[in-house]
Design a protein that fits this description.
With about 425 residues, the chain is α/β, with parallel strands linked by helices. Helix content is about 50%, strand content about 10%. It has three domains: about 140 residues, Rossmann fold, CATH 3.40.50.620; about 120 residues, Serine Threonine Protein Phosphatase 5, Tetratricopeptide repeat; about 120 residues, DNA Cyclobutane Dipyrimidine Photolyase, subunit A, domain 3 (Orthogonal Bundle), CATH 1.10.579.10. Bound molecules: flavin-adenine dinucleotide.
Length: about 425
């Protein structure tokens, strides 16, 4: 029997149909090959069941957001008559199962950010699958850059200046959803893990974020309508308050929103309402995200070793008592304790809080910085391997910080950014 042909869109951290170069490529590849498109999301065991340093790789906030985002993707796909195939296996195993019933023409997915995804793609290639990996969630494409990946500037400032200076380096305009029809029904039933994760959504969560593209678009349009972007630079270091930051990170980390869409919306806002330091500063922060993405790709496995990409020996251990005190907000430093309690309860803390608690973990609790990064990975709703591990390595002095690490004066920071102690009281009482 001749098997029907299929191109697989392997959904990783880009959970949307719009402005998605991977999906667009899958659709045009399928059209050329006379194949259908199968959208496949794997509940990758390495992520969902795995641990690092004794901590789960994914926690409840991330899982809830991910499941909501995939459910939302199902709704988006249903407009094209397409089901979302969900597997509890790793991509290579899931593809082998699909290959029982289909001739797999090829696989299209995101350009890996870090070592595990790169190995996963290499595994698929070694098994004979044609794999195309695209820059789906980056502002820029490598081909646009004025340097090779192995010559990525060693600091953010040099990277930013290089890309800001070059008129040719502009994010691509966001692309519409490609038209496609795909009705191939999954060859296997829904995994038990998935059903359990969906069922657990009904349980109460303190997270303030709802997963999925529709929730992300609504959040972002409310933020823009509020006008808060015009004062972002002045408010972004606050510990609490409405619209003091953009809170885009969960939707960007799960790929519900495209960073190129956000960039284009900021430019449109500047044209409509007026450009100022604040509107620029949000784009500046998005360049930080961009830098860490290319930095993770350039530094590969060295980003995850204690000496970091810099190969610098640093102190830090895995002392259980000091870790538990830090994790549970019992260090005695009120700004750190408040932040760690907020993190545990909601899966999110602001950038300033992330910097302060990382500084405490490394320089006051004396922990191996990777233990802190692993806890963030487990606790954050917006975990992003490049931003998380890149920022931790930076603060620990083994990453991209030309000053060799950041030690924060916690009391001075608390006095400055939470002068009335409102935030600390909120989480410590
Ligand atoms: C130790 C540590 C760990 C972090 N881990 C993560 C993580 O796992 N996932 C994550 O998305 N961000 C991480 N960040 C970066 C940053 O703290 C968050 O992106 C930001 O707080 C999210 O809130 P926001 O969307 O309101 O940010 P805004 O201030 O509104 O900024 C807008 C966007 O710019 C990007 N951005 C801002 N600051 C940074 C930064 N320092 N590095 C990289 N991108 C940035 C984010 O995409 C963010 O959504 C980490 C920072 C530190 C210091």
């Amino acid at each position: 029997m001749v098997k029907p042909k299929a191109v697989i869109w392997l959904v990783r951290d880009t959970i949307r149909l719009a402005d998605n170069p991977a999906l667009e490529t899958a659709v045009s590849w399928a059209q050329t090959a006379g194949a259908s498109v199968i959208p496949l999301a794997c509940l990758e065991p390495r992520r969902w069941l795995d641990q690092q340093f004794g901590l789960p790789r994914v926690g409840s906030h991330w899982t809830q957001f991910r499941v909501e985002s995939l459910l939302d993707l199902e709704v988006q796909l249903s407009e094209f008559g397409s089901p979302l195939w969900i597997s509890s296996a790793s991509p290579d195993r899931a593809l082998d199962e699909i290959a029982q019933g289909f001739h797999v023409v090829g696989v299209v997915t995101d350009l890996p950010l870090a070592t595990e995804e790169r190995i996963e793609n290499a595994q698929l290639v070694s098994e004979g699958y044609a794999v195309r990996a695209l820059e789906t969630d980056d502002l820029f494409r490598m081909a646009q850059m004025p340097f090779e990946l192995d010559a990525l500037p060693e600091s953010f400032t040099r990277f930013r200046k290089a890309v800001e200076k070059a008129p040719a380096i502009r994010p691509n305009a966001p692309r519409p959803v490609p038209t496609f029809l795909s009705t191939s029904e999954p060859l296997w039933p829904r995994p038990v893990e998935w059903d359990e994760a969906v069922a657990s959504l009904t349980m109460a969560s303190d997270s303030r974020f709802a997963g999925g593209r529709r929730a992300g678009l609504s959040h972002w349009s409310n933020y823009l309508a509020s006008g808060a972007l015009s004062t972002y630079k002045a408010t972004r270091n606050a510990f609490m308050g409405e619209h003091v930051w953009s809170s885009l990170s969960p939707w960007l980390a799960h790929g519900c929103l495209s960073v190129r869409e956000v960039w284009a919306d900021i430019l449109a806002y500047e044209a409509r309402v007026g450009a100022n330091e604040s509107t620029y500063w949000l784009r500046f922060e998005l360049l930080w995200r961009e830098y860490f993405r290319w930095y993770a790709r350039a530094t590969d496995w060295t980003l995850f070793r204690k000496q970091g990409p810099e190969g610098r020996e640093v102190p830090g251990d895995f002392n259980r008592d000091r870790f538990v005190q830090w994790r549970d907000g019992l260090t005695g430093s009120d700004i750190v304790d408040a932040s760690m309690r907020e993190l545990k309860a909601t899966g999110w803390i602001c950038n300033r809080a992330r910097q302060l608690v990382a500084s405490h973990a490394i320089y006051e609790s004396g922990l191996d910085w990777r233990l802190g990064a692993a806890w963030f990975e487990s606790a954050l709703v917006d975990h992003d391997v490049a931003s998380n591990w890149g920022n931790w390595a930076y603060i620990a002095g083994v990453g991209a910080d030309p000053r060799g690490g950041r030690v924060f004066n916690l009391e001075a920071q608390a006095d400055r950014y939470d002068p009335e102690g409102v935030y600390r009281r909120r989480w410590l009482s």
